[in-house]
Specification:
Length: 610
């Protein structure tokens, strides 16, 4: 089985960076219909990314994973055809309207927004021509394994990055509260905002805390277990993240997967080339909200960010004494001038300051006004690391062997890469023999090794000729052979076809389809009805009928987070309430969400009251 490291790309430049850091594939937004509106790219730029990716036998997947309205169906279809003509390797979709369109022969991947969360749902998608399911982020290893056994398609799972608090594909909160739909690529992230928690008497029992904000995902230590559960593509979240994030996290996970490939010879890498990093990647140094394995191991644990919504970073110590801008910490630390410090102020908000200088445990800070004795400090910016990261060179190279001969009165040069792709060029050369054959062989090797900015590096070099070839001619031969090899690799890039629809239908896992099925157009409705579904309600983006509707289901449970779950003990709740006074309500400005608890399925449901 080939293992794929799948990286995000906000734009083409970040896609190229991800490839050079070792990504086997990148996912990127097209001109429209991508679920990150701030990460759109035009076709000309995408063509450049596709060319670079295919050089490495890597792949480019383009997101068309928003809901599509009736008036947009024809534009969506034309966009899919235009992307296929560029040579993209798959289209990522949420809306089942695409399965009713006349589309080109290109694989379709079901977005996590398509709710790929059960064996029945994924088997249904596979039977209808979907090649890959992007699994819901909240699944456990056991749930992934069950899907793998039930559905004969590729499985992709998130391995690192931010988490949505809602179960994948089942959130209308942003649309209802702000008019910006997450299903249309415009999520305003109200889940990261501060909310009040009210008891049954409308008394505030928790004030202005990010009660729906959860930690980021990091299951990089579980990659091997995920492989054994049937996952073959490991996805990094972050199409809105910056280049430092891409460089650091892709490099980190490349080393993780490479270590696994060394241990497991039956596994192989999904693309070609060897990567050299001139730095030691460390994802703890880039922005995160704390790391969690979420539900991967099946355990119930606290996943909320707790009292704060911002990033705190690495703990460095508590303030032992304070005099002016000088702090004395209670432990040794590795702080340096330029580092950023974060802490929680008296209002429970994240505040920060910069380090101006350090003397042993003494730290001189830029703004000490909100600090006091006992404040716990965290480093949220490692200046030295970020400087190294920004300057560090990352190279990806393909090893080629070279063979120089004299044939039919001409110099004959062959380059062969590690995938067996070859290029042959010929050129005139002198008739006389070199004065020093051994020195000539060294000259040939040196000339052919000058591969500079090309994607290749020279491995084995053979010289089988007694005829002299001047260095200028060798250089010309090398340039021509490299150009031919690049084109040969691009032309021979393996193309996959769209999965055929199964001859035996697989039933819909649910017959009566409510607003959570996100049916926003006539084609999607026709698709579901053709498969026995009864559409009871269209997507809320169409009906705008929010009040009294479920806004999300989530595996975050406020009962558990506050230490009052009747079924599971939380040993470390960030706030413990002896009697929460249910029913509970979340309030933000004029908006109220009623909390309902499905203890059998271990879910919390949020219903909009107003």
């Amino acid at each position: 089985m080939a293992l794929e490291l799948l990286a995000p790309a906000k734009n083409v430049e970040q896609g190229l960076l991800a490839l050079r850091c070792g990504a086997d594939a990148v996912y990127v937004g097209g001109p429209r219909f991508g679920a990150r509106q701030g990460a759109a790219n035009d076709l000309k730029e995408l063509e450049r990314l596709v060319r670079e990716a295919h050089l490495w036998r890597a792949r480019v997947y383009v997101t068309l994973n928003t809901l599509v309205y009736d008036a947009e169906l024809e534009e969506a279809r034309r966009t899919a055809w235009a992307l296929a003509e560029l040579g993209v390797d798959a289209l990522i979709i949420q809306d089942m309207a695409f399965l009713e369109m006349q589309l080109p022969d290109v694989p379709l991947h079901a977005s996590t927004q398509a709710v790929c969360d059960s064996p029945e749902k994924v088997a249904f998608l596979a039977a209808n021509g979907v090649s890959r399911a992007i699994l819901a982020r909240e699944l456990s290893l056991a749930e992934m394994r069950a899907i793998h056994l039930a559905a004969p398609i590729e499985l992709e799972a998130f391995v690192y990055g931010a988490l949505c608090v809602a179960e994948s594909g089942r959130c209308a909160l942003s649309m209802a509260l702000t008019g910006r739909s997450g299903n249309r690529g415009e999520c305003a992230q109200p889940c990261r905002a501060s909310w009040d928690l009210l008891d049954r008497h409308d008394k505030v029992i928790v004030r202005e805390r990010p009660l729906l904000s959860i930690q980021d995902l990091d299951v990089s230590d579980y990659v091997e277990a995920m492989v054994d559960a049937g996952v073959q593509s490991f996805k990094i979240e972050g199409r809105l993240k910056d280049a430092d994030y891409v460089k650091n996290v892709v490099s980190y996970l490349r080393t993780k997967l490479d270590a696994l490939l060394l241990r497991r010879p039956e596994l192989e890498r999904a693309s070609a080339g060897r990567v050299q990093h001139a730095f030691t990647p460390d994802p703890k140094k880039t922005f995160h909200r704390g790391h969690s394995v979420y539900r991967l191991d099946g355990e119930r644990r606290s996943v909320a960010t707790g009292a704060v919504v911002g990033r705190l970073g690495e703990p460095v110590g508590r303030v032992r004494s304070l005099a002016g801008d000088r702090l004395l910490l209670d432990r040794d630390h590795a702080l340096a001038a330029g580092d950023g410090l974060a802490f929680v102020d008296m209002d429970g908000k994240v505040a920060g300051t910069l380090v101006n200088g350090v003397q042993a445990r003494q730290v001189f800070v830029q703004n000490p006004a909100q600090l006091c004795v006992g404040t716990e400090l965290f480093r949220n910016l490692d200046h030295a690391f970020m400087k190294v990261l920004g300057a560090a060179n990352v190279e990806r190279r393909l090893t080629v062997s070279a063979r120089l001969e004299f044939r039919a009165g001409q110099a004959w040069l062959q380059l062969r890469d590690e995938d067996g792709c070859t290029a042959v060029v010929t050129g005139e050369c002198a008739v006389e023999a070199p004065n020093d054959p051994e020195a000539f062989r060294q000259t040939v090797a040196q000339a052919l090794a000058r591969l500079g900015e090309t994607p290749f590096e020279l491995g084995h070099c053979e010289v089988h000729t007694d005829h002299f070839v001047p260095v200028s001619r060798l250089n010309a031969l090398r340039r021509a052979a490299v150009a031919a090899l690049v084109e040969n690799r691009l032309q021979s890039h393996p193309r996959e076809h769209r999965r055929a629809v199964a001859s035996t239908p697989v039933p819909l896992p649910v017959v009566r389809l409510d607003h959570t099925w996100n049916i926003a157009n006539a084609l999607a409705q026709r698709f579901y009805e053709k498969h026995g579904g009864v559409v009871c309600e269209q997507a809320l983006e169409v009906t705008h009928n929010y009040v009294g509707k479920m806004m999300m289901t989530t595996r975050l449970c406020l009962r558990f987070e506050l230490g009052v779950c009747p079924r599971h003990e939380n040993p470390e709740p960030w706030l413990r309430l002896s009697d929460p006074g249910e029913p509970l309500t979340l309030k933000n400005g004029p908006h109220r969400l009623r909390c309902e608890f499905d203890c059998v399925r271990c879910r919390m449901l949020l219903v909009l009251e107003r």
